[in-house]
Amino acid sequence: MGPRQSEREAYDELSFYTLAHSDSAFIHQHIVDAFIAQHADAETKPISIAFALAGLYLHCERNYTGREVQKAHMRLTKAKARLPAFDLPNDRGAITAIDVAKSQPGAERDAAIHDWAACVWKAWSAGHPRVAEWLKVELQTGQRL
């Protein structure tokens, strides 16, 4: 990793790391959701934003593993017509893919991935009630998937 590593290069490095990870929890899903939510703009498809926020909510608020988030995403594909809209926040969180990529592979990096997801989720706080209500209706989140 060089001193001028871009966000995308750091994300690609983290993707390689998480996809090669032997953990069955599939932490790769968390980096996908964090990166999309952190870098969403006016050109980002609403489904991408909604699913990223759903994944962050399920992980950060409901303690879902990446594999469980993946299953929730599959269930949500049936609800595409009912996607909520979200306003893009100005601040997307201080932790970035670059920061996470600087951490040591293993437990330290895995914890940094969680911290990144939580940081990005917190930055979208204005949308939290909408995400929670959407998932309560669509996934009945009172029950585990």
Overview of the molecule:
By secondary structure, this protein is mainly α. The protein has one domain (7-139). The chain is built from 7 helices and no strands. Helix 2 crosses helix 3 (46-60), helix 3 (46-60) crosses helix 6 (107-123) and helix 3 packs across helix 7. The N and C termini lie far apart (38 Å). The mean pLDDT is 91.
Quick overview:
This protein has 145 residues and is mainly α.
- Please report which band the strand proportion falls in: under 5%, 5-15%, 15-25%, 25-35%, 35-45% or over 45%: under 5%
Extract low-pLDDT stretches: none
- Using the CA coordinates, give the radius of gyration: 15 Å
Largest sheet: none
Q: Figure out the total of helices.
A: 7
How far apart lie the N and C ends? 38 Å
Number of domains: 1
N-to-C series of helices and strands: HHHHHHH
Shape assignment: globular
Total beta-strand segments: 0
Helical content stands at 55-70%
**Which oligomeric state applies?**
single chain
Mean pLDDT: 91
Q: Could you say which structural class the secondary elements and strand pairing correspond to?
A: mainly alpha
Present the secondary structure layout.
Layout: H1 7-19, H2 28-39, H3 46-60, H4 66-76, H5 97-101, H6 107-123, H7 128-139
Helix pairs in contact: 1-2, 2-3, 2-6, 3-4, 3-6, 3-7
Q: What attributes characterize this protein structure?
A:
globular; 145 residues; mainly alpha; 59% helix
